[in-house]
Write a structure and sequence with these properties.
With 325 residues, the protein is of the alpha/beta class. The protein is built from 11 helices and 12 strands. The protein has an 8-stranded parallel β-barrel with strand order 1-4-5-8-9-10-11-12, surrounded by 9 helices. A two-stranded antiparallel ribbon has the order 6-7. A hairpin with a 2-residue loop joins strand 2 (44-47) and strand 3. The longest helix has 15 residues, at 291-305. The protein is globular and about 70 Å long. The model has no long low-confidence stretch (mean pLDDT 93).
Length: 325
């Protein structure tokens, strides 16, 4: 006979027992919901590439932000489509543009909601790239002052946190210095510390019209094959003053998430990106999956790997599902 003194199934016999011994949980306070801000008023237009997500004018964004907060979500991340684009991406730091106006209004109308602002140029440049260009080369050091302008403008609008996603070398340190010199020492930085050159970003680029006009982003975003390089990137960002570090994408990089959690003590975020979201929505619409079960299992996988913060387009649905439990 086998020795069955220890029977693991004893702790699975009922929902109450499973709840009692559950090792990993997802809470609404873990979630950040992305918002896509566009010029105009009264606009809530579904995004073709992201079913269930919307282009929102500032007034509509305030309504969604209120809904998110009432559901228990504690943060939103602001992305925007500008009224104009140029080679430098100067609309990214224009205080009259939708992003800065949305930050200002959300802070006024939902004062306890954390407002996080994406710091990048790709949505604002005529080239679709995240930095300054010379002879089709993305210039690193010349881009840093522009990113600093973006971050300071967002802090001036009221952002609690800025999130540089451009992957230029040295940008965290430059932004920290710029924020401090401008008097925004309390504005924190969530760094896209290990952001991979991923095929999972396609629906997002459609949503914000940020596809590069030439080439790709492989010279600044990370090679998906590299693990140790991610650790070096994270160490640099921590040394430069990042308050939170992020891995992007999430699902195909959970090994990176776990290693990061094991090595570093800073709060850890993941971005459950547009391609991951769109695949789930497509499968759900085709009747191939149980959407709620699959999404919740996905959220658990990110938490189990070590993430504390999950930026996800599923956030409103997850919050509603958790409220039913």
């Amino acid at each position: 006979m086998y020795d069955l003194t220890y029977r693991p199934r004893r702790l699975r016999i009922s929902p109450e027992m499973r709840d009692l011994v559950r090792e990993t949980t997802v809470d609404t306070s873990d979630l950040i919901y992305p918002l896509f801000i566009v010029p105009g008023e009264g606009i809530k237009r579904e995004i073709d590439t992201l079913p269930g997500q919307y282009h929102l004018s500032v007034d509509e964004a305030v309504k969604v932000a209120k809904e998110a907060y009432e559901l228990g979500i504690r943060g939103v991340e602001i992305f925007g489509i500008p009224t104009y684009k140029d080679e430098q991406g100067s609309s990214a730091w224009d205080m009259n543009e939708p992003v800065q106006q949305a930050i200002k209004e959300i802070r006024k109308e939902v004062p306890n909601l954390l407002v996080i602002a994406d710091v990048c140029l790709c949505q604002y440049t005529s080239t679709g790239h995240c930095g300054m260009i010379e002879d089709h080369e993305i210039l690193n050091d010349e881009t840093l002052p522009l990113l600093c302008k973006v971050a300071v403008s967002q802090a001036e609008a009221g952002a609690h946190m800025v999130a540089p996603s451009d992957m230029m070398d040295g940008r965290v340190g430059a932004i920290r210095e710029a924020l401090d010199q401008a008097g925004y020492t309390d504005v924190s930085i969530m760094s896209y510390a290990a952001k991979y050159a991923s095929a999972y970003y396609g629906p997002f680029r459609g949503a914000v019209n940020s596809k590069p006009q030439f080439g790709d982003r492989k010279s600044y975003q990370m090679d998906p094959a590299n693990r140790l390089e991610a650790m070096r990137e994270i160490e640099l960002d921590i040394a430069e003053g990042a308050d939170i570090i992020m891995i992007k994408p999430a699902l195909s990089y959970l090994d990176i998430v776990r290693e990061t959690r094991d090595r570093y003590e800073l709060p850890l975020a993941v971005y459950n990106v547009s391609g991951e979201y769109a695949m789930v929505k497509s499968a759900a619409q085709a009747g191939l999956i149980d959407e709620e079960r699959l999404v919740m299992e996905t959220m658990l996988s990110m938490k189990r790997a070590g993430a504390k913060i999950i930026i996800t387009y599923h956030a409103l649905d997850v919050a509603r599902w958790l409220a039913k439990q």
